Amino acid sequence: MRKQIKLLIFSSLIFAFLGGFLFFLIYFCPKEKVSDVSFANKTTNISDEKLINKNFKNLECITLKNRGDSFTVNLEKNEKGEDVYHLIKADCSEVSQDLIEKSIMKNFINEIEEMTSLKLVSEGSDDFPKYGLENKNISITLNFKGSDSVVLFLGNEAPFSSGYYLSGSSPELNNIYLISETAAEVFFLNVESFMTEAKVA
After folding, report:
1. 14, β-bridge pairs
2. 156 and which of 25, 126, 132, 164 could share a cystine (Cβ 3.0–4.6 Å)?
3. Are 111 and 186 in contact (CB under 8 A)?
4. What is the value of pTM for the model shown?
5. Which of 52, 109, 55 is nearest to 84 (CA)?
6. Where do the H-state alpha helices sit in the chain?
7. Is residue 103 a contact partner of residue 88, using CB atoms and an 8 Å limit?
8. Adjacent-strand bridge partners of 122
9. pLDDT tens per residue, range 87-118
């Protein structure tokens, strides 16, 4: 009986000591400022600067190629100054103007214009196979007035679904960047993406 009482007292003392130590750690130890450490580290590599430094008012043509489809969009203005999109399929046939959803087309062009990088992965790197950029199977070509053009190449998906690798043809894009999954979605579109489901059916 005495042994049980001693064991009970000893256990109570241990719990009291551990509880006091935990209380000290919680209330008296210095805490890191979240704004100075965690958040700062997460945002260090994020850039708000656009990848394509061109005037999109001068954009004349977009060609998209991926593993599932390829198509070209020719842009022009009608007599009222409204945007007109000519959607050309891989077989060179043109989609009727009545079938094109203009709002989707505008969003497509805007997503390309506003594209930014999450971070610069490699500056002037020739190590394209490591990032899936050696074959250039997925690309968007932008042709501007004055024979000025830019080509964007999409590579592999980065680990942990953190985005996709991207490079380009122009000197300012001849690096390897990481872009978000949302930004990369424009590379996977097909002709049907620019029509409503009712029109496609």
Report:
1. none
2. 132
3. yes
4. 0.73
5. 109
6. 2-28, 38-43, 102-113, 181-184, 197-200
7. no
8. 176
9. 999 999 999 999 999 999 999 999 999 999 99
